[in-house]
Amino acid sequence: MACPGCGFRSSRHHRAAAGVAKGVSLATVLKMLLAERHLKSHSDFLLAYDRHAAQLDPPIPPGYGPAKTQFYRWLSGRMVGLPRDYHCRVLVKMFPGWTIERLFQMTEAIPIAARAHELGLPGTDIELEAFLGAEMITSGITLVYPAFGLPLRRAPALPTAEIPYRYAFDRKVRAFAADHRSDVLTALPEKEFRGLLYMFSALQRRTGILTEVRSDRYVVAHGDRPYISFGLTCNDCTRMYLESVERPLFTLNGSGAEGDSHFEQLELTDGSRFDPSAGHDIGIIARVRPSPELHPDRYWIFCAGLGPRGTTGASWYLANFWIPLQRRAGDREFVAVVGVGENSDDTAHLEHLLIE
Questions:
Q1: Model confidence at 263, in pLDDT bands (50, 70, 90)?
Q2: pLDDT for 126
Q3: What pLDDT is stored for residue 5 in this prediction?
Q4: Are 312 and 232 in contact (CB under 8 A)?
Q5: Fewer CB within 10 Å: C terminus or N terminus of the chain?
Q6: Comparing 12-16, 273-277, 310-314, which segment has the lowest mean pLDDT?
Q7: Contact 253/267 with Cβ under 8 angstroms?
Q8: How would you class 38 by CB atoms within 10 Å of its CB: exposed for 0-12, middle for 13-18, buried for 19 or more?
Q9: pTM of the predicted model, to two decimals?
Q10: How confident is the model at residue 159, as a pLDDT?
């Protein structure tokens, strides 16, 4: 039942109020976000408040920020209902990707954020939860690389010298359990694994969250989990998404020859198409909800590309610029297309962002 004084349905709201009465130190998510930006005092907050209020359309003139007593009620959660509408507009402007209801939830009501705060992790870990999804934070982060099972026997001669090495192995070969058989060797594509290492390094620097590295074969066989996957059609996780979802956010177009397994064009659901060209590769970062009804907090994240630096450039961009992506996309599915120069992965730059 909703509280007649504030409209909150969750009993956690009332437990939080009881905690304040007993002297327990509680805080809203807003307080944690402000601490990350070093805006702990009322005066510092008002300066930031006025700056963002002036950016609204229509703008709110200076001097409309909360009084000191009201400000500290916001931080502690000792308030009835939500702030006035114009306060809500400014706060949403200050914290893109956060709803006003989430900003005023108690950390006790968001155990992931509370745990990160208690462990002394960076405040941006709260945004990392939103980007990766709560399930990935609680269960651990799985990074997925494509693995090729190679039988330890003489390989048949290739029909033509023109077939690229990555298409030389039959799909059935990959069905062998390389970790359980002595006659199978596992090979890892260098570019996809190097891309995985970009993200692994970023996660290790930023969080204390459990991170594991698994093959695509393992994850598809034990697929009831969130993950970050690297590689396009060489990765079974990407293939599973493209083949099982009725309307995938992105698809791949071949070069036109019948039976050709080369993919030369990326197409998004908004109709936009992207092709790699000389000195310009295409990377893709996609975040999707595979089962929004059953697992609303579960994301699959795909990081891949077309061209020699497509996957590594996209991975570098994901590792370094996930925060702007999160702030623009919020909790929605999205596909980011990045362009990558031929000389370095760190030339990756955002070319297009599709938000569902």
A1: low
A2: 72
A3: 36
A4: no
A5: N
A6: 12-16
A7: yes
A8: exposed
A9: 0.59
A10: 54
In one-letter notation, the amino acid at residue 163 is: I
CA distances from 161 to 44, 164, 167, 254 (A): 67, 8, 12, 20
Give yes or no for a contact between 29 and 126, defined as CB atoms under 8 angstroms apart: yes
Is the CA virtual torsion 121, 26, 94, 48 positive or negative? negative
pLDDT for the residue 342: 85
Element (H, E) at 349: strand 349-355
149 close to 185: Cβ distance less than 8 angstroms: yes
Helical segments of the chain, H only: 11-21, 29-36, 42-53, 68-76, 85-94, 100-103, 111-118, 125-132, 134-139, 190-206, 216-221, 236-244, 310-329
Q: Any bridge partners for residue 185, and if so which?
A: 150
**What are the E-state strand segments in 155-277?**
184-187, 211-215, 227-230, 250-254, 263-268, 273-274
| Mean pLDDT rounded to a whole number for the chain | 77
Hey, is 180 helix, strand or coil? coil
Neighbour-count burial of 244, counting CB atoms closer than 10 A to its CB (0-12 exposed, 13-18 middle, 19+ buried): exposed
| CB-based contact 145:139 (threshold 8 Å) | no
State the pairing for strand pair 227-230/141-145.
parallel
- Token readout for 72 is 């500290």
Please give the average per-residue pLDDT across 132-153, as a whole number.
82
